[in-house]
Amino acid sequence: MFGQLIVSGLAVGACYALLALAMVIIYKSSEVLNFAQGEMAMVSTFVALRFLMPIMFLFRGCLPLTFLFAILWAFSLKLSF
Prior knowledge:
Layout (H helix, E strand, L loop, with lengths): L1 H29 L6 H16 L6 H22 L1
């Protein structure tokens, strides 16, 4: 149980570190804080969940589809604004 707690804490800490690193990189490159990263990640996660649940895709098949969706969605948002 203690080992699982350690691994879980390290996983959550790694997620926080990745989000902080992404915010620092964007701030250093554009001098603007961009909080829309969380929304992009959340929508992509929900799309991945929708791919996984009803059709029962394997994770290997779901991951490229989710990346493709995220890329297309980002380009469509960039073109619309």
